[in-house]
Amino acid sequence: MDSILSAYEMENSSIVKEFIELAKIDTFSRQERAIVDVVKMKLENLGCTVTEDDAASKIPDATAGNVFAVLEGELPGSILFCAHLDRVQNGFGIKPQIKDGIMTSDGTTILAADDLSGVAAILDGLRRIRYSGKKHPRIEILFSVCEEIGLRGSYNFDASVVQSKFGFVLDSPGRIGRILRSAMGKAQLFLEVTGESAHAAYPERGKSALRAAVKVLSSIGDCRVDEETVINWSYFDCPSPCNTIPDHVLAKAFAMSGNNEKLDAYIRNFQETAAQVAEETGCKIDARVIVDYPAFHTSDESICVRLMQKVFENMGVKASVEDGAGGFDANLLSRWGIELVGLSTGYSLNHTVKENLVVEDLYKSGKMVANAALTYAEL
Ligand SMILES: [Zn+2]
User: Taking the model in full, what pTM does it have?
Assistant: First the structure.
């Protein structure tokens, strides 16, 4: 590949070295203590005021909280940069290696570029801003924990400490230049029906939990409910022998939508239908819902999209604004009224042993962070 980096720079630029240093710290969701201590020290050395929140006390077995850091600026305004410190399983003993401009593990572990490329880019961006000597706005950094186990860190983060009205979450697969303006929300649905068993020869003496459950599910629709919403009923348990009227059913689904009103409407219909079928059948029906995170959608006219387009234009990077699918910290942080987009930092095949990172994209990601802070002043 054509590269702006020499082979020497590829191995020795400070961002690459820092990425490798972080990747070698054995980490897993809930076990972020060591990496949290390291990044807190790095942020302090960069002149930030650093705090760790109490998320560890709210997440079972967690060992560290979210890290929130502030680099005060001379210019008005504030920008938030966010990445997560945890990684999926198989992230112990990572041995990063670079060949033809691509970084991989040795093939036995993940690389953890999801999301250490984001963490390293933010640290590198801060360093560049400091050394530029240029005036900049207030810069806020959130390094979250427990992202990979359902965004538990950002769920428990009290974002009232954030002054920024907008920000960037560096946590998306793909080449640099990709701007994610949206991601779907997700909920878990549980349908539990308790009927009354009876001998199969005398069905009128029992109340079939199975008939009631099927009635609910056949009334509410599933799979692609509309162009923004998908519901996947994937589990149905009815542990009853064939000579007995079944008295218990448990069914489960994932619901995902790019539109929070549509997801709410489906959930409402699910619960109302369940109540109605309970009345008709005499079964006890529990229709439980856990909303994991809402969808978010940031306008193309928002400052974060416009600022990043300008940054990429200055850097000669082709920008593309896209809609995402899976949730990430931006979904939960946007609940606090912060306008956010996701940014790619050059990794792909994340969560697998084939995970790889385009080294030049990592290098540019650090510049992207610094440019965003310095360009904001000109906007
Ligand atoms: Zn991630």
Answer: 0.90
Cα 314 to averaged position of ligand 1 atoms, centre (Å)? 27
Whether residues 44 and 192 share a domain: the answer is no
Q: Kindly give the distance from the C-alpha atom of residue 142 to the centroid of ligand 1, in angstroms, as a whole number.
A: 14
| 299 Cα–ligand 1 center, Å | 22
Q: Both 280 and 306 in a single domain? A: no
CA of 172 to the centre of ligand 1 (A): 7
CATH number at residue 229: 3.30.70.360
Q: Which residue has 């079964």 as its token pair?
A: 283
Give the model confidence (pLDDT) of 27-54 as tens digits: 999 999 999 999 999 999 999 999 999 9
Indicate the burial class of 368 (C-beta count within 10 angstroms; 0-12, 13-18, 19 or more). Answer: buried
229 and 338 in a common domain: no
Ligand 1: centre distance to CA 106 (Å): 20
Query: Could you tell me which residues come within 8 angstroms of residue 152 by beta carbon, excluding any fewer than 6 positions away?
Result: 29, 55, 59, 62, 145, 146
CATH number of the structural domain spanning residue 59: 3.40.630.10
Among candidate residues 249, 264, 293, the one where a domain is terminated:
293
Backbone angles phi, psi at 27, to 5 degrees: -145, 145
Find out whether 236 and 272 touch, Cβ atoms under 8 Å. Answer: no
SS3 2: coil
Ligand 1 centroid from CA 147, angstroms: 7
315 occurs within a structural domain: yes
Q: How far is the CA of 198 from the centre of ligand 1 (A)?
A: 50
Give the range of the structural domain holding residue 277, as residue numbers without chain letter.
Answer: 185-293
The string of pLDDT tens digits covering residues 204-230 is 999 999 999 999 999 998 889 999 999
Q: Indicate whether 208 and 92 sit together in one domain.
A: no
Ion ligand 1 — residues with CB < 5 Å: 114-115, 171
Residue 151 Cα to ligand 1 middle (Å): 10
Q: Provide the 8-state DSSP code for 62.
A: -
Q: Same structural domain for residues 305 and 317? A: yes
Q: How far is the CA of 180 from the centre of ligand 1 (A)?
A: 13
Please give the distance, rounded to the nearest whole angstrom, from the Cα atom of residue 98 to the centre of ligand 1. 21
